[in-house]
């Protein structure tokens, strides 16, 4: 991870580890944490508009933005990295399950033009 994102990645790594995820990939702009059941947490730093980032979770070909998941669960707080990570811990049992019961609401929110 590049220097501008290292501190943010360290914060993601601490929470990911506490949730049972281990770092499986780390490049200049992306880090991936996976658990034993195949779920992942992805941290992607924006290459040109630093320090913008995207935090997402997924499994196989499913991928969900944590920012949008907060909206699905009616969490209207500012989606700072700290708040997104806190949300993952709070909603862990509701998020990391298959099939995701929130998928239809997620797709509805994701399709809305803003």
Structural descriptors:
114 residues; alpha+beta; 5-stranded antiparallel beta sheet; 5 helices; 40% helix; 25% strand; globular
Say how many strands there are. Answer: 5
| Bulk shape | globular
Ends distance: 31 Å
* Strand residues, percent: 15-25%
What value does the Rg take, in angstroms? 14 Å
Note the main sheet: 5 strands, antiparallel
**With helices defined by DSSP (H or I, 4 residues minimum), what is the helix count?**
5
Order of helices and strands: HEEEEEHHHH
Low-confidence stretches: none
Domains, number: 1
Mean pLDDT: 93
Helical content class: 40-55%
Strand order of the largest sheet: 1-2-3-4-5
Structural class: alpha+beta
Characterization of this structure:
This protein has 114 residues and is an alpha+beta fold. It has one domain (3-111). 40% of the residues lie in helices and 25% in strands. The chain has 5 helices and 5 strands; from the N terminus they run H-E-E-E-E-E-H-H-H-H. A 5-stranded antiparallel sheet has the order 1-2-3-4-5. The mean pLDDT is 93.
